[in-house]
Amino acid sequence: MDHLIDADAVYLLAGVALLLAVILPTALRTVALSAPVVLLGLGVLMGLLPLPDAVRLTPGDDRALIEHLTEFTVIISLMGVGLALDRPLNIRAWGSWRRWGTTWRLLAVAMPLSIAATAWLGWWVMGLAPASAILLGAALAPTDPVLASDVQVAGPTTDDSAEDGLDEAEIDERDEVRFALTSEAGMNDGLAFPFVHLAIFVVGAGSLADWGVEWAAWDVVGKTLVGVLIGMLTGWGLAKAAFRSKRPSIRTAETGEPLLAIAAVLLSYGVAQVAHGYGFLAVFACAMTLRSMERSADYHALMHQVIERLERLLTLVVLLLLGVALSNGLLDALSWRGAAVGVVLLLVVRPVTAWIALRIGSRPKQGVDGEGLGPRERLATAFFGIRGIGSLYYLAYATGHEEFEGADTLWSTVAFVIAVSVVLHGVTATPVMRWLDDHRTAAARH
Question: How many domains, the chain?
Fold first, then answer.
């Protein structure tokens, strides 16, 4: 009977999540409050009720479930991000690489600096062991593609833009801040993986000589290349089939079957994981490649809508469960030092490292071509380093491979950072982005 009651509770939670997924986006459209803030708060309140154990997930007992639930949520989100980006990336054209310059600086400068600073704070302030400190930095390094929807691009531009006078080659992002935050979140989830593996190596291996070369050559370079190449090949094959197959039954772009997007997620991720590459990068590369063919086609919008709805539902479930866990002991191991490190990460480390990265090689703002950020845009981009579901995945993944000293402290600290980020960035996203839009509109009139 207990199992039946637990199953009923799970159905109830799923029903509440689905109902909120339908209502909240419209209800909060004109309010400076994001859906994740409301959901996390509801989860905390639900956790105070006499709920069954089925909805009270704990890192110790339910680590594998947490890992796979957050893993699936992130890869679904990465497909949505890749499909939503309008700015093309042609790997054979230097001009195309340059237009992504903001993204490269955030990935190559801000993220490693953020990992190093957070790891150092974890060791010096919190007293964590070196491996645990590295894991803390790696888990909290990536910005979140799931919770950052309020500051990301809205979705793919399709035939409507062509009617406004834009051809396929001219379709591009107009908002450099949203592009920077979206593209950064799409890539840094996969690029944080080498540092998670670094923490695992430090725990399980001997001296640096035993694993240093292997880590640098394979975990940093090899797995990255494997993931990106598999993603590109999978996306190219699916795009060719969907748009240009000789068999009408295979041209899903003509039939309008949007479930191809979910098939693309599972295929690219599964193949990359089997080949020991980074599946997160494979999914994003697959989405970008799929998006690159027939850029103005409505089919991209159809696929993005399916992914967006599934992502929204998964996000609601994760946030409700996180909220329940927060009020049921997940923060028990949080010390004032851990809380201080979390606040410093969000208010100092991320903004400062991102500001440094954006200042390096920056160019005066060039209008809509995405070649520069003004001072206001740099501030906003640096501030919105949203932490979220990816951090939970990395922590669950690493603790499933090795025993980390102070694991409870890591879980409490990461959960605290996510909760503060959800509230802080969720409350400020709407007014800050409106402020930028108003200044952009005013500048265009003069």
Answer: 1
Q: What's the rounded Cα separation, in Å, for the pair 117 and 104?
A: 19
Give the single-character DSSP code of 169: G
**Does residue 44 sit within a domain?**
no
Q: Which residues of 284-304 are buried (b: 16+ CB within 10 A; e: fewer)?
A: bbbbbbbbbbbbbbebbbbbb
Tell me how far apart the alpha carbons of residues 337 and 325 are, in angstroms, rounded to a whole number: 21
Q: Which of 384, 368, 243 is nearest to 303 (CA)?
A: 243
| Domain CATH number, residue 388 | 1.20.1530.20
Which pLDDT does position 28 carry in this prediction? 64
Residue 386 maps to a domain: yes
The pLDDT tens digits of the residues spanning 253-291 come to 988 889 999 999 999 999 999 999 999 999 999 999 999
Cα–Cα distance for residue pair 227/78, rounded to 1 Å:
14
Domain span holding position 282: 59-445
pLDDT per residue as tens digits for the range 184-216: 999 998 899 999 999 999 987 766 667 788 899
Residue 13 lies inside a defined structural domain of this protein: no
